[in-house]
Amino acid sequence: METLVLGLDLFGTFVFALSGAMAGVRHRFDLFGVVVLSYAAATAGGIMRDLLIGAVPPASVADWRYIVVPVLAGVATFWWHPLVQRWQSSVLVFDAAGLALFAVSGALKASAYQLNPLAAMMLGVVTAVGGGVVRDVLVAEVPTVLHAELYAVAALGATVVVVGGQLLQLPSTPVAIVGAVLCFGLRLLAIRRGWELPVARVPERNSGQEEKDHKDEAQLS
Predict the structure, then answer these.
(1) Per-residue pLDDT averaged across 37-47, rounded?
(2) Rounded CA gap, 88 and 91, in Å?
């Protein structure tokens, strides 16, 4: 179990680091900025998970591999970003891969710490979306999890598979693969076909109504 979680964590760290580094390149960050964004995107979710389950210091701080991997990914992306860009149709592919791997590893690690199934699923989702939220905040964008097509829902699907497999005492590796593939495939299908959760419909206000609202606010103040 520990080897499986470590492998998924490091691979997820690498692909999320590429996602963060490419976001930094797109926003024309300098080398230091790209590396910082790469590390933040790759490790923030894991740090949140470890702090919540009491695994301190977090692996992303205590284990040198979690530092070296995103730094190398950030530097490589900074210098060879045209090559990295050719590997993907968009940065969302790397993001979807990191989402899937972190959802699975987060749920597995939470289960290993004897958390109840619901908590394990929740922490799997937190692990998956945490890095993306920090990345988007640092580049002054609305976090993808709040508006993208089936982002957190895809991660939740992976955690349900993993935790369900744990409850049924199925082999961890095949269950982890199935959960990761489900999350990755669902996320890419949602992007391709525009699947999304319902959005609250707010009636549009005309300019006259907006002007009246401003006057009312001025009078109240």
Answers:
(1) 92
(2) 7
